[in-house]
């Protein structure tokens, strides 16, 4: 087998996370010689999806080498097999594909149009994200009323039909929705409030009740407290949510790739890179690199001891550096439960596809108890077995909140509260807690903790990074409109083979 | 005649070590071409399509090659998604390639859906007289241990090149559970925005 160092590479890409994999896809028809390496033995970087056994190996590595990646404090809990209450049990390891950084992809995201124009959507299956819920806790004054999930209105008709919103409030809400659909052209309403908190803006400019403020805040998927979630950050996100509904069919505004989300996109993009001639090596990182002067090739030392030469080296910083200010951390739990949670995934609009993913928002304060001060919103995002991440009859729950001293308790409380509202005899079978630090970002000065590595919805800023790197590699005279625009591959197809006529 | 879209689509993967002759077999079967000089992986071909009729019914085969990702064993899980069959290829004139097959079986069995059909192929049968190092019975026994079909082929002389494809398809179509497992697409949505109504609740 010839060694890697015998080739004069045009591009070496380090890492197979979404950014790097999409870069490989973008370069897959460029006739560049691409060497794509990843220090991990798996594809996907922080977006990787794992079987149960792979999660155990990953958790062990996180514990042993806490400084080499963005993850910390991983711990696994598994229902004991001798559990006397019985119930459904965990299936075999590979029946699961649990995602480390699950994200929904809004229908309006450029990622989807780029997956289509680059042809790789053919290797992906998408499932709908429908049914958004907000958690309404028991109020001390009415202890008889149990905590419930209230479905968020799915567009204008839903709001008209919602009897829990009084008419005056409906008019205010409609006024806000009309504004946000065209907020860019109404700077006079919001620009002076851009840095203010969203709830105050909704109250002062649109007279929205605190209940409706919570609904609007939920749509931002912000990890910050509502007061610290700025108007400038929120408006594009709310608009994206509202304008995405119905784009690809009634009743939903976002999708998730089946079998593990971003990990699946990364793998399909890397295969496109390989089909285009790219060479793939996993379990091999980059130890160091040097360049004697700007015109000389870059010498790259691989962790397997080989040295290769390349014109370009694409190293997106995946990990936190000490110099980065306001370095934040999130807490996550991925859990497997013993129920299909059918009522969560019922289609809300006639003729809409059955969603495989639902979103449950726990606004700050709703989970407060004696030991928990619930300051930041918590999100629980259930995936049904249609998402391809667990066996039929079970669901995967992904819970996320900003990391605080009691965020683990908070997430566990959120999961329990959710399971209690669901009412069925649903058991927790498996649960993994971990913390994730934010990753470096090169394109923009990010405010409001909108770091794409944390975002619960795919953030199009990531595509700007990819396009910038693509342009840097192909040169400034490249036609930007050709980014991710590919013809369908010729398959030299349609030979017929009629076995029966000869046998 | 039925249009291609209405035919039952079968996804069949080619795997095995570099240089075993996967692409040569695929190109001989699909295009009836053979290039003895070409030893490098084909660039730019994602998959090949071929219509195959078995027992009076036509099937649309989607035949996927490794795109070189076998070289450092970096095939992804997603490569195996929805595959009805896996053809594992080794070179009968190369002992090392045969020895690697146990690991390839392992990878295929753990990544493909349960019940996917495996088929082992010993390639370069034209070299049998001059440089065979793996006996027919060795291949036959390995295949039997994994419940896989088996044959030896020569892409150079065309000998048996259709046999693996015909036999694997024959086994696939006799497995209704396998066909059902791969056609279940509850709630699948399309994101192209231009094809059809934009989404479909059932793609069966």
Q: What would you say about this model in short?
A:
With 503 residues, chain A is an alpha+beta fold.
Question: What would you note in describing this structure?
Answer:
The complex is a heterodimer of chains A (503) and B (204). Chain A has 503 residues and is an alpha+beta fold. Helices cover 26% and strands 22% of the residues of chain A. Chain A has twelve helices and 19 strands. Chain A has helices spanning 18-26, 52-64, 110-117, 156-161, 167-181, 187-190, 198-206, 210-220, 231-244, 262-275, 407-422, 461-474; strands spanning 8-14, 34-38, 49-50, 71-78, 98-99, 105-106, 126-136, 148-151, 254-257, 279-282, 286-290, 298-302, 307-315, 329-337, 357-362, 378-384, 395-402, 428-437, 495-498. In chain A, a hairpin with a 7-residue loop joins strand 11 and strand 12 (298-302). Chain A is globular. The model of chain A is unreliable at 443-449 (pLDDT under 50). Chain B has one domain: Rossmann fold. Chain B contains seven helices and seven strands. Chain B has helices spanning 22-31, 95-99, 101-111, 128-131, 136-145, 163-173, 176-183; strands at 8-15, 47-54, 57-64, 85-91, 117-123, 149-152, 188-189. The longest helix of chain B has 11 residues, at 101-111. Chain B is globular and about 55 Å long. Mean pLDDT of chain B is 88; it is low at 195-204. At the A-B interface, helix 3, strand 7, helix 10, strand 10 and strand 19 of A face helix 1, strand 2 and strand 7 of B.
């Amino acid at each position: 087998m010839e060694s890697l160092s015998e080739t004069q590479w045009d591009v070496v890409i380090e890492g197979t996370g979404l950014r790097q994999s999409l870069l490989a896809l973008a370069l897959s028809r460029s006739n560049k010689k691409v060497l794509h390496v990843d220090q991990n033995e798996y594809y996907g970087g922080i977006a990787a999806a794992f079987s149960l056994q792979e999660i155990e190996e990953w958790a062990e590595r996180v514990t042993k080498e806490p400084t080499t990646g963005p993850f910390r404090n991983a711990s696994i809990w598994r229902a004991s097999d001798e559990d006397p209450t019985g119930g459904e049990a965990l299936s075999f390891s590979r029946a699961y594909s649990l995602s480390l950084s699950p994200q929904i992809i809004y229908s309006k995201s450029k990622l989807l149009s780029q997956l289509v124009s680059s042809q790789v959507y053919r290797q992906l299956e998408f499932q709908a994200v429908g049914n958004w819920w907000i958690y309404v806790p028991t109020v001390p004054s009415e202890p008889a009323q149990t905590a419930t999930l209230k479905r968020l209105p799915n567009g204008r008709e839903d709001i008209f039909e919602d009897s829990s919103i009084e008419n005056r409030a409906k008019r205010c809400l409609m006024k806000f929705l009309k504004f946000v659909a065209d907020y860019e052209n109404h700077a006079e309403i919001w620009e002076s409030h851009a840095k203010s908190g969203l709830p105050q803006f909704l109250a002062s400019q649109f007279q929205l009740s605190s209940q409706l403020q919570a609904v609007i805040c939920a749509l931002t998927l912000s990890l910050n407290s509502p007061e610290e979630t700025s108007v400038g950050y929120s408006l594009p996100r709310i608009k994206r949510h509202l304008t995405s509904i119905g784009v690809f069919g009634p009743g939903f505004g976002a999708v998730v790739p089946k079998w593990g989300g971003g990990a699946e996109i990364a793998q399909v993009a890397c295969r496109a890179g390989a089909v285009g001639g790219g060479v793939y090596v996993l379990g091999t990182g980059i130890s160091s690199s040097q360049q004697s002067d700007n015109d000389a090739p870059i010498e790259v030392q691989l962790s397997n001891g080989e040295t290769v030469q390349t014109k370009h080296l694409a190293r997106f910083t995946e990990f936190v550096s000490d110099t980065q200010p306001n370095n934040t951390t999130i807490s996550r739990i991925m859990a497997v439960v013993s129920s299909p949670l059918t009522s969560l995934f019922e289609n809300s609009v006639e003729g809409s596809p059955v969603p495989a993913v639902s979103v449950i928002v726990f606004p700050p304060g709703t989970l407060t108890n004696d030991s928990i001060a619930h300051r930041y919103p918590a999100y629980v995002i259930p995936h049904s077995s249609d998402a391809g991440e667990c066996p039929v009859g079970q669901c995967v729950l992904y819970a996320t909140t900003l990391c605080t001293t009691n965020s683990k308790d908070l997430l566990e409380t959120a999961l329990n509260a959710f399971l209690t509202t669901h009412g069925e005899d649903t058991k927790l079978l498996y649960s993994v807690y971990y913390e994730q630090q934010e990753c470096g970002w090169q394109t923009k000065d990010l405010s409001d903790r909108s770091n794409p590595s944390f975002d619960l919805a795919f953030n199009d800023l990531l595509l700007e990074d990819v396009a910038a790197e693509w342009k840097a590699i192909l040169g400034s005279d490249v036609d930007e409109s050709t980014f991710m625009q590919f013809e369908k591959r010729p398959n030299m197809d349609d030979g017929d083979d009629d076995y029966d006529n000869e046998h | 005649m039925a249009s291609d879209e209405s035919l039952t689509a079968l996804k069949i993967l080619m795997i095995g070590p570099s240089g075993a002759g996967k692409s040569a077999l695929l190109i001989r079967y699909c295009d009836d071409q053979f290039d003895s000089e070409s030893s490098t992986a084909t660039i730019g071909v994602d998959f090949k399509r071929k219509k195959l009729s078995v027992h009076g019914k036509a099937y649309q085969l989607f035949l996927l090659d490794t795109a070189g990702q076998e070289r450092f064993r970096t095939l992804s899980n997603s490569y195996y998604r929805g595959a009805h069959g896996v053809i594992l290829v080794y070179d009968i004139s190369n002992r090392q390639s045969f020895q690697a097959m146990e690991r390839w079986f392992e990878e295929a069995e753990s990544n493909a859906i349960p019940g996917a059909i495996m088929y082992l192929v010993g390639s370069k049968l034209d070299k049998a007289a001059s440089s065979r190092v793996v006996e027919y019975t060795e291949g036959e026994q390995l295949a039997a241990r994994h419940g896989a079909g088996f044959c030896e082929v020569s892409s150079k002389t065309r000998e048996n090149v259709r046999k693996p494809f015909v036999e694997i398809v024959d086994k696939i179509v006799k497995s209704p559970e396998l066909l059902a497992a791969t056609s279940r697409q509850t709630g699948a949505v399309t994101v192209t925005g231009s094809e059809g109504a934009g989404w479909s609740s059932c793609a069966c």
